User: What shape does this take?
Amino acid sequence: MEKANKSSAILKTILLGCVSATLYFLLYYFEGPILNWSQQGNWYLLVPVSIAVIFSFVHGSFTNYFWDVLGVKAKPIKR
Assistant: This one.
């Protein structure tokens, strides 16, 4: 990995890690209102679904950059 790409990946890892930690804090802090919204039914069902999609995207991106910065790569499958 080139030096510019590695520093960019490290910066993205730190940024996404901070965003992920902030999302977990906000989920814990606003647990009550989120539960109330999701229990109302109808279109409020989108509240937990959208939270799960956002968490999946942010945390998945963080994990990807984290392992990339550490140099861990998946072993390719030979067919």
The two ends are 27 Å apart (CA to CA). The chain has a mean pLDDT of 90. The first helix runs from residue 3 to 29.
